[in-house]
Structures are given as structure tokens and as C-alpha cells.
Amino acid sequence: MMDKIRIAIFASGNGSNAQNIAEHFAGNSSVDICRIFSNKADAFVLKRADNLNIPSFVFTKKQMNESEIVLNQLIADKTDFIVLAGFLLKIPANILEKFPYKIINIHPALLPKYGGKGMYGMRVHEAVKASGDIESGITIHYVNAAYDEGNVIFQAMIPVEKSDTAEDIANKVHGLEYEHFPKVIEQIISGAF
Ligand code: GRF
Predict the structure, then answer these.
(1) φ, ψ for residue 93 (rounded to 5)?
(2) Which of 100, 118, 135 is where one domain is finished?
(3) Predicted model pTM
(4) What is the mean pLDDT of the chain?
(5) Does 89 share its domain with 162?
(6) What's the rounded Cα separation, in Å, for the pair 158 and 175?
(7) Residue of 70, 120, 144, 165 with fewest CB within 10 Å of its CB?
(8) Cα separations in angstroms, 58 against 11, 19, 40, 76, 105
């Protein structure tokens, strides 16, 4: 019997992608979402974890960057793969080194545009709207020491209409996230990428 692939999800806020991913794999006997990590004790993603019966682990930015407790928990969980789904902190070197090409992130724009420090949530969609760009989308990429600069794995696009508000763009981009992120994760862990 093959061991299950054990995936940890990191999220800082709402967690709709984390829930979507967990529900996608709920019926997959070879994958286990083993824990949801958050740097915000009041993040709604933790309520979603409880409702999904997924263990969680809360830590502070200082603990992640100045101690081994997050890395030790990942190791104790026998984590195979790490998914960042709305996680707003950089991943420290000790975790990057332990999980080479095993950490991916989703960004709600077509990187390299609208990425980097401070570009998250509605700020991204407001920037797209202000730019007059006629398309936006998602980027799924490997994580390295910089924000949003790892090798791109997958991108999907949506048209941006002149009449679209930043909220309209956000809703269309979220639709892409929910449609594609779980499937791309499945492809990556099966070695397709
Ligand atoms: C998503 O738009 C994702 O692309 C970005 O952060 C947002 C997280 O939303 N990285 P949620 O917490 O999954 O609802």
C-alpha cells in the first residue's frame, strides 16, 4: 500500500482556497491534507480547518523566522508538500531548504505583473483595474526566498472588461483559483510538472 502524499496548507486569512483544496482531495485516498498552518490566530481559515476536521497550527511571524517550531511541526507531520494559499509571509530559509521544489504558491495575477511585496488581495485587482489591462488571471509558481519570483508552473487568464470593477476582477480571478489550483496541485504531486 503506497503511503499517502501528505500536504500542508498555509493561509493567513479567509481560506476559501484552502477549503476548496481540502474538499477536492477529500475523496482521494492517496492524498492527505495533514494540517493547515496560519500566522493569524483569528484567521477564518482556522474555522474552516475545524469544520473540515483538519488539524491546524498557529504561529507568529517571529516564531517562523526565529525558531524551528514551524519546521519541526512540518517534519513531525511527515509533510511531503506545502501549498501556500493566501499566505502573506516569506518562507524562511530553513523551510525552503528542507522542502526544495515542494512548496508552491498561488498569486491572483499574471506574474511578473502585479507581484512582489505588498501586492496581495484587492490591491492586486485595483492595480489591474487602474492599469487598463484587458486581461488578468492566476499564477501558480514554486516558492523561493523572494515574493512571487519562483518558477512559474501554471497560468490561466480571464478578460477584463472596461466596465469591470476591482471586485468584478477579484470574483473572476477567484473562479480561476477554485477551478485550477486543486488540479494543478494534483498534477504536480503526480510528477506531471
Ligand atoms: C487568493 O486570491 C490567492 O490568489 C491569494 O490570496 C487569496 C487568498 O484567498 N494568494 P483565500 O484566503 O483563499 O480566500
Answers:
(1) -55, -40
(2) 100
(3) 0.96
(4) 96
(5) no
(6) 10
(7) 165
(8) 10, 17, 7, 15, 19
Instruction: State the Cα–Cα distance between residues 81 and 92, nearest whole angstrom.
Output: 16
Q: Which of 51, 73, 100 is the last residue of a domain?
A: 100
Q: Which residues of 149-172 are buried (b: 16+ CB within 10 A; e: fewer)?
A: ebeebbbbebebeeebebeebbeb
10 plus 94 within the same structural domain? yes
CA distance 80 to 186: 13
24 is catalytic: no
What is the best residue among 174, 179, 181 to mutate for testing ligand 1's pocket, by most ligand atoms within 8 Å of CB? 174
pLDDT tens figures, 105-115: 999 999 999 99
131's grid cell: 492599469
Most ligand 1 atoms within 8 A of CB, residue of 10, 12, 17 to mutate? 17
User: How remote is the CA of residue 120 from the centroid of ligand 1, in Å?
Assistant: 8
One domain, residues 42 and 93: yes
Looking at the fold, whether 3 and 92 belong to one and the same domain comes out as yes
Examine the domain organization and report whether 63 and 114 are in the same domain.
no
Residue range 53-98, pLDDT digits in tens: 999 999 999 999 999 999 999 999 999 999 999 999 999 999 999 9
Q: State which residues form the domain around 158.
A: 106-193
- Whether the pLDDT of residue 1 is over 70: the answer is no
Residues present in the chain in total: 193
Quick one: average pLDDT of 28-45?
97
